Amino acid sequence: MEVVLSILAILTVIIIVRGVVMVQQAEAIVIERLGRFNRVIYSGIHIIIPFIESIRTLEWRFQHQDIDGKLIVTTQHLTRIDLREKILDFDKQHVITKDNVSLSIDALIYFQITDPKHALYEVYNLPQAIEKLTQTTLRNVVGGMELDECLVSRHKINTELRDVLIEAGNRWGLRVIRVEIQDIKPPDELRSAMEKQMRAERDRRAMILEAEGQKRSAILSAEGQKESEITAAEGEKQAQVLRAEGEALARIRVAEAEAKAIETIRNTIGDQENATGYLIAVKYIDALKNIATGNESKVVFLPYESSSVLGALGSMKELLTHTKDNPIKQQILSDKGGKS
Prior knowledge:
Structural class: alpha+beta
Order of helices and strands: HEEEEEEEEEEEHHHHEHHHH
CATH topology of the largest domain: Tetrahydropterin Synthase, Chain A
Radius of gyration: 60 Å
CATH class of the largest domain: Alpha Beta
Distance between the termini: 172 Å
Strand content: 15-25%
Helix content: 55-70%
Number of domains: 3
Largest sheet: 4 strands, antiparallel
């Protein structure tokens, strides 16, 4: 009897240990009954039937780097499926572009298991399947693009790769969140040539900018010189106009003064002809005096019409005769003599 009780106690412990399953948050377990899929249990306490129901394991590959940077890959059989978002970072993939350039591409995939049943039964070793699909898709996408397009079209590669993985993920019970191309490395000799090309392009742009600056500086300098010359010309023009106006005004004043003198002399002597002759004689005398007083003058100039001069001198004599007894007329002649 005691043996039976002991056996029952052992069976009870086994049933409790193997029959009671606690699932953590964001985890799932696939339960099979007699080798067939039965159900998926999520977070909480669940009871399974020992020896009839069992937990199906999931083969999962892990990879990490050691101290030397070497990538180490390990494979484990998991009884619990993690439903959180995961990051799959696999080795760099070597692909060939449309123009036959070998590239090394490093990609990163963010995904999440949404259906543990499909993730377990629709594909063997889910991470490896994702990696292989990514490799083939990268080869197809990059193989249809040239090198320059690959280097500047990472978003296009990400989009096409993500579309293919989403289509496959619907069958495999996972959701591809995003795909990121971390790095695209061309061969060393090509990279060196590209660096030389970039340096040449930078030098060319620098020369263009310098030439544009010099051109702009020359244009501004020419415009400044032009404006300066225009301003100087405008100033000279205004100065000439003012000088001409001053000279014209001075001549008008002189003519008015001479006209007033002629009128005064005519009123004094009562003879227009003698007054005009008097003024002409004064001009002749002033001109002869200026010629004779020159330092280097060797020739004495006399007017061609000497009779006119003599007639003018006669007019002066007659004028002086009429003005001997007139104080006002004497004052006018004295003023005129003082000016001459």
